[in-house]
Input
Amino acid sequence: MGLLGDMVFLFGVFHSSVWIISVSGSPALTINLSSDSTIHISRSMASQLKCNVCIGPSCHSSLMLSKSMEVVFTCPQPEDVFIVKIVRHIVCTTMCNGTINPEDYSSLQNFNRTFTWNVKVQGHKAFCLDFTSAGLRQIQTTEQCPDKLIYTVSTGTATVGKFCRQGTIKSMQVLREGSVSLEVPAKQQLNAKSFGVSIGPEITSPAIIKVTLPEKPSSQEFFSPNYPESFPNDDLITWAFQVPYKYYSTVHILNYAMPRCDTKDTRMEYQLNGKTLVKKLSDAQLSEHQGSFNLSLQNCHVDTQSSSTNLTLHFKISAVQRGSEVRCTVDLKRENRLQIHIEKKKPKSDCILKLNSLAKETATIPSQMVSYVSFIDCQEKDLLISIKKTIACKQLRDCPVPESLEVPALDKCIMGVVQEVRWHLYGPKNGTVELVSSGGRLQQFLPGHTCNNTVLLNVSNEPQGVSVGQFCPQGAIHKMQINVPNITVSASPARGKNLRQITNSLLHVSFAKSIRASEHYVFTVLPKKDIPVLLATPAWPLGMNEYATVSWFVSFPAKLEAHVSFTNVSQLTCKNRPAYIKLHRQHSQDKMYIWQEQNPKDVVVSESFYLNMSNCKPVKGAFSVVSQVTLHTSKSVRLSIILSIVGVALLLTAIISAVVCIMRKKKKKRSAPEVSVYNPNSHPFLPGLHRIPQETEDEDVHIYHCIDDHLVYGHLLKDLEMNEDGKPAVCVYQDFTGPIERQPLPEDGGGAEREVEVYRPFTLPQSAPDVPDTLVRPGENPACKDTQKADEEISGGDSVQETEPG
Output
């Protein structure tokens, strides 16, 4: 180092010192460099000043220093003209573990300077750049960082991008060789944080950018390499996104340009849980994905002869925290021609619907494959499900036996309300589709009526889309025959219910040979007694197609009669032949009723019948009719029933009367006659309460419990008859012949004579006599008992008993 003037200014940094020396007013620098570093001093492209940098007598517009030496500038303020690049070379062989601490040259702070670290590894391995402490955020080339420090990462073929600090990019892997640059503006100190360099694994992508999203709602933007210039031909770049738990990320493409490809295609590849998902740039990208994933941008082999050769991509990834997620695996590999369609009821709701890890507003699950459906923050009412199934055959021999139409059973993990199940029925050409009700019969659903069930069935012609009618269970229509090969049957819930609640079969479908060409629709109706059945023409109230015909075969048991009325008949004008209604009995082809261009009248039919209706070619109006059929008991049957009931009633009355008479006679024979007893000893007892004792085998009627002494009781027996021995008859029953009741004297003083010795039935007095206190044992005579009591009263309580000889 020598003296180059009157004044010398010394600035230095240990190991890398810079001396600024002024000689005759011209600034000079003395720079000490390490062995693995170089300094590039070059004129800025934006500067218009003429200034050179000189080493000795040799002056140039730019200069590269690889060793320590002196430089002199030919202008007084070289920092306004020149920029400085400090380059360090790092070669990794077997090991390359270290930390890079950017070191600034304090004397160069007046210059715009760029610090560059070129890193190279051997083989197909990559080197890793660890920016954990700094954290990078990608920006556009024209954008500035808040701290004015800009990082640039490049591969051997492209610039990965420009970055600011305080971002989510924590590390990068670069294949074989690359560089990291740090731009520092003039007159600003270098406050950059260190970053690490190490040898990484073998990779196939030129660069892998690892992004760690924060545990809060966030949004980050990313750009393709060389943006806004073209991504290299047939090149690849990968972003690895680390998503926090319970956070869901979505990729939005903000801007892109696609080249015309010679071979291959430009595409975006998602690596999701070991599966690869390929998307075009024009497709909807990954949405509401939970968990980490990799995103790769693959360029094609560009057609250089085309004007469209640029591939550019600008996208954004956002992440938000969500609640619980329900995942469901739907296996339809064994299902043929079955589709499950799920859609959000409110597109702006918090419910997230995902099919195969992609968020969708509507998701269609196809048959013969396995699909993965997810529901995030969803309730069953937030989703609507519709199911489609196709039943088809080309030949009658290939058609299945009557197949059941029922709501397919869905896994419980599939959330949503089943609002429609649609069956597309494709039969052989010139064939007929037959629909038979399963559990119960059907009733036709008409406007203004209610369906008292959980399901509403709609049948329509497939080619024309003409509705045959709407039907509810629990009716009288047993079978429908439609003379077209293709129809559609759909089931929808009635009164806002869920079709998932229906587990039974709705209809049975089969294919048969075509019925008569003139018959388009044939219904078999089995009405019940006293229940009205409404029958409407197809497509009511819009009207039938021109020349279309419909027939109802109404079958019912004998002894009933059908009352047919026409509740609603439209008015129309025909072009050629008129529309008509015909009605004839089942066993008679004679037309019982014909209507043509006049109002039909009610009729009564006594047996099963056919009701035919045929449309014309309407000029004005439409042909639509609603008829009503009600079964009642026939008049002759009603009369015979009434007569039978009357006859049975009379017979029952006669039988009951005879039984009553017989029962009364038997009762009179079993009942004892009523007896009146006269007792002069003022010990009355009620007649009829005690009957004459019944004789038993062990009882001797000639043995008495008491013996009456005629000497003692003779005054009581003086009026009684004597027995054969001349003694009073004691304990002998005699008919009472005295008066029964006192007759009141006539008012005339007894002018009329009373009837004597005339039997009168015993009648109780108004006040019944007291029942004697003495109990009468079985076999005792009441009169004898009273006599014994009188003896006791006379003898003062001493009774005379006859003792048996010892």
The longest strand covers residues 82-92. Residues 373 and 531 are 48 Å apart (CA to CA). Helices lie at 635-670, 710-713, 782-794. The domain at 213-322 is CATH 2.60.120.290 (Jelly Rolls).
